[in-house]
Amino acid sequence: MSVDLLNIVGLKGLEQQEPVVMVNLMRFHDRSLDGDGSGWDAYLRYSALTVPMIKARGGTLLWTGDAKTVALGERHGNQWDYLALVYYPSVAAFLDMMTSEDYETRCDPHRRNGCAEHVIIATAEAYSKFKMG
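Above: the chain sequence. Below: its structure as tokens.
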């Protein structure tokens, strides 16, 4: 498994059967590293392949949007282009997808070509108006 920067140790330390919402923060390359359009274009190719994999594991895309500006906090290093909130019914479902050969060979190359930086933060619900269930 060679999905770079995947924090297997941290994810394995979480309760594997608990639901999780992954907060995705993305900054795109101006041009896709494979030369096929912009970084955004590569990310759209990634999304087209990844969303069905998320749904196959019981997950769903909750929300996406453009990042406009840092409203509070240090601006340096916190300039993002795009955000996505993705629900998975369990941490194990997320890990299953991210460590699958299909993700590694079909999806991750588009993510790498499009994203100059991609941070995913695993969250546990404290309060939500979204009821998944």
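The CA atoms of residues 27 and 81 lie 5 Å apart.
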